[in-house]
Amino acid sequence: MGFLQNACTFSVLSQDLLESCNPFDCGHNDLNEFFTYDSQNYSNQLLGKSYCFLLDENPKEIVCAFTISNDSIKTNFLPNNRKKRVNKEIPRVKHFKSYPAVLIGRLGVSSKYKKNGLGKELMDFIKSWFIDEENKTGCRFVVVDSYNEEIPLAYYQKNSFEFLFSSPEQEKEYMGLSKDYQLKTRLMYFDLIVLSPYD
Ligand SMILES: CC(C)(COP(=O)(O)OP(=O)(O)OC[C@H]1O[C@@H](n2cnc3c(N)ncnc32)[C@H](O)[C@@H]1OP(=O)(O)O)[C@@H](O)C(=O)NCCC(=O)NCCS
Q1: Euclidean distance between CA atoms 42 and 32, whole angstroms
Q2: Which residues line ligand 1 (CB under 6 A)?
Q3: Contact 85, 124 (CB under 8 A)
């Protein structure tokens, strides 16, 4: 059991909560603004649900927050070796045009708490939701469009995410972007089957 489980309380990131808490600061302005000003609209429009962990000692303190929504990975995007693995057990596999996934649209750990393993604990918590027997839909992958920056890329790799496209050049080609375009994000995925009791 880690810090989030022992010393924090999990909650929906509601408007009331945002108004009663200290401003959330994960050191990334776009993310801070999203959680503070936009996350409610996303939720109201059914585009993404935001959650957080609050510090038990001081419930005005948001320790970390994330936003998730339904997504999918097109079968022809998935690297061949992974595709073979997914398809191995599936009858009439040719009918599959995409695989069910959940998208982590936003995720941040408060600057005060970074580099203490909370990001990893949070990711383990999120992954566990989608292999839980109570999960209402099938979900094979967790996907993220990570900032193309050293720390987030290292973070997702540390949490066993892989690049959906093996190189930035391949990703740009698939996205129809010109060769000299600087990718701001990289698509990454995690195959939940490795955590499934049926693997
Ligand atoms: C990315 C982020 C979530 C990591 O949270 P964290 O609680 O510090 O992460 P952890 O302590 O669990 O670290 C996990 C791994 O991430 C990587 N990492 C985290 N901070 C790092 C840093 N400052 N420099 C290099 N690698 C780093 C490392 O691989 C680390 O593993 P290690 O400690 O064994 O080296 C946090 O830095 C953050 O909120 N950043 C701003 C928002 C953001 O970039 N979100 C992700 C994109 S949506």
Answers
A1: 15
A2: 26-28, 31, 106-109, 114-120, 146-147, 151-152, 154-155, 158
A3: no
Token couple for 145: 């469009």
Domain that holds residue 171: 3-195
* Other C-beta atoms lying within 10 Å of the C-beta of residue 11: 15
Q: Which two tokens stand for residue 29?
A: 């302005």
User: How far does residue 106's CA lie from ligand 1's centre (Å)?
Assistant: 14
Looking at the 3D structure of the chain, how many domains does it have?
1
pLDDT tens readout for residues 140-199:
999 999 999 999 999 999 999 999 998 999 899 888 999 999 999 999 999 999 998 877
Which amino acid residue places its CA nearest to atom 39 of ligand 1?
108
In this predicted model, what pLDDT tens digit does every residue of 36-81 receive, in sequence order? Answer: 999 999 999 999 999 999 999 999 999 999 999 999 999 888 888 8
* Strand pairing class (98-109; 62-74): antiparallel
CATH of the domain at 37: 3.40.630.30
Q: Relative to the CA of 108, which ligand 1 atom is closest?
A: 39
Contacts of 133 by beta carbon, 8 Å cutoff, 6+ apart: none
Q: Which of 115, 147, 148 to mutate to test the pocket of ligand 1 (most atoms within 8 A of CB)?
A: 115
Handedness of CA 178, 179, 183, 187 (dihedral sign): positive
